[in-house]
Amino acid sequence: MKLVLLSCGLAAALPGAAQQPAPRQNTVEAAPADAYGSWLSIGNDVARLLRRALAEPDDAKAIALLNSRATARLKAKAEQLQPSLRSWVSTLSVEQKEAFAQRFLRESPLRQCLDSLERNPASKARLERSRGLQSALQALVYYTL
Length: 145
Fold this sequence. Notes:
By secondary structure, the protein is mainly α. The protein has helices at 2-17, 33-55, 59-66, 69-89, 94-107, 109-119, 121-129, 131-144. It has one domain. The longest helix is centred in the first third of the chain and has 23 residues, at 33-55.
């Protein structure tokens, strides 16, 4: 599904797009806990918002929820956090960046939500049927993944 490919591409791009001050150790586990934890928290909030929107049977209401003020706040938080992740990731070696990307994909609540969405035939069909809903979902994922 296009959504999963988009999210995988964005997650793979994250190591090249995320930075923070050099960690004390030269390991992926030395990620700044506050920035990484905040990023996972944003992913959790986005996943909750996606589940709530997709539970709404009316596509127009689901789109409105995905385009709500809550979404704008989540996007602003993600944009505010990106510079610290970028500066940290820029200190990592290529292997460490790859390990970080794998860890992020494994731990991301948003990624898990998108995986469950991909496995649900009814949700897939709904997204394919409603381009507006698909666009709103992709815009939210783009800003926060």
